[in-house]
Amino acid sequence: MIIKTTGHLSMIKKSILIKIITLKSIILFLFAGCSNGTNETAQLACSLDDPCNIRFPHVTAPSTPKGQAAALFEELAEARFPGRVTVDVYPSSQLMTDDDSLPALFAGEIQMIAISLSKFDRMTQAFQIFDLPFLFPNIEAVERFQNSDTGQNLLGTLNDRGFQGLAFWHNGMKEFSAPIPLRVPEDANGLKFRIMESDVLEEQILNMGGSPQKMALGEVYQALQTGVIDAQENTWSNIYSAKYYEVQPYIMETNHGYIGYLVAVNPDFWQSLPEDVRTGLEEVMDEVTQWGNQRAEEINLRDRAEIVASGDSEIITFSEDELAVWQQSMRPVWEIFADGIGRENIAIAQSLN
Ligand code: LMR
Fold first, then answer.
1. Which end of the chain, N or C, is more open, meaning fewer C-beta atoms within 10 Å of its C-beta?
2. Above 60 in pLDDT, residue 34?
3. How far is the CA of 233 from the centre of ligand 1 (A)?
4. How far is the CA of 73 from the CAs of 1, 10, 55, 181, 258, in angstroms?
């Protein structure tokens, strides 16, 4: 598989791309309200003379489940439409943060995103279900829920807000890392935790007695190193590729939550593609989703093994009884968000566990 990075882009080209997130795009996004915010778009050619370009920035390393799936999408889409479609994947926050990519997609400055479901918190409560601590015991349970009618309906949640969902991609289950072992939730008392932009995650940390700080992924390593934050939560593949294990002496294998992505496009852009290209790219996306979602767990286990082999971080494991204490203690967090998420959706997820 070819993993293309931005190595070939000059700094100037990059900074021009970053500047395209203009004030206009942010204003458009902020004032979109409940409209779809789509613009008048002529049918694109996607021809050899005038190829369609899909810019696809994301924030994780090329080695992660998302990094590998995005690279495969690039490879297969270009192979399917040689010269007619080009895909440029920008991994590792090289082009922009997730926060910036929402208005950029909305404004048509980029064409595809794969952002953690947690980070759509400002736009919908529907995805908060994926952040409820200890709702999903493992990736297989998440997969069953996402493939259910309820889960598939969630894919379209943001269509009328300018984000057409094409797929759910998995990363994996989250673990805590900290400067001290967290054997029970109360051990987190007083620690500052980096979290993603999510009110559920904020309540989760408050519930443990910690202090939550929302922060972009790209800032976390330095914040841990300099003591701006003490602790964080993420998947094995993110903890490994972002090297958090080098500066966090303990990793708690709680598997307390899920990180997965909504792969989305601007509906206006998508509809403007010639039909054969649009349906072809949707087929490619289905193939990539199946491939990536089957491998996500394997990638996370590979990276867990790398961390163990490094000897840098001690992994704290838990018995079922010990985990039951964590689960019980975090249950009040569900109550805060249950009505917004829809109690029936939570019940469906539980029934598929
Ligand atoms: C994070 O910010 O921790 C995650 O969204 C990173 C990811 O996997 O995209």
1. N
2. no
3. 10
4. 10, 24, 12, 39, 23
**CB 220 less than 6 A from any atom of ligand 1:** no
- Tell me the CA–centroid distance for residue 87 and ligand 1, in Å: 22
pLDDT at residue number 13: 47
198 touches ligand 1 (CB under 6 Å): no
Q: Is the CB of 217 under 6 A from ligand 1?
A: yes
Report whether residue 61 contacts ligand 1, using a CB cutoff of 6 Å: no
How far away, in angstroms, is 116 Cα from ligand 1 center? 6
Q: Is 171 in the pocket of ligand 1 (CB under 6 A)?
A: yes
How far is the centre of ligand 1, averaged over its atoms, from the C-alpha of 185 (Å)? 23
210 vs 300: CA distance, rounded Å: 26
Would you say residue 18 has pLDDT above 90? Answer: no
How far apart are the CA of 297 and the centre of ligand 1, in A? 16
Q: Where are the domains of the chain?
A: 6-351
Q: Ligand 1 centre from 232 Cα, in Å?
A: 12
The residues that bridge with 193 in the sheet, in sequence order, are 212, 231
Per residue in 295-311, pLDDT tens?
A: 999 999 999 999 999 99
Which amino acid, residue 93?
Answer: S
Q: Is 238 in the pocket of ligand 1 (CB under 6 A)?
A: yes
Tell the residue number behind the tokens 């953690």, with chain if given: 116
* Count of CA atoms in the C-beta half-sphere (13 A) of 33: 2
The residue with greater pLDDT, 88 or 3, is 88
Whether the per-residue pLDDT at 60 is higher than 50: the answer is yes
State residue 20's pLDDT score. 47
pLDDT value at residue 201: 98
What distance separates the 2 farthest-apart alpha carbons in the chain?
A: 64
Instruction: Please state the atom number of ligand 1 nearest to the C-alpha of residue 58.
Output: 9
Contact 304, 236 (CB under 8 A): yes
How confident is the model over 178-186, as a mean pLDDT?
98
- Which residue is associated with the tokens 């690279």? 71
Tell whether pTM > 0.85.
yes
Q: What are phi and psi of 119, to 5 degrees?
A: -85, 0
Look up the CATH superfamily of 6-351. Bacterial extracellular solute-binding protein, family 7 (3.40.190.170)
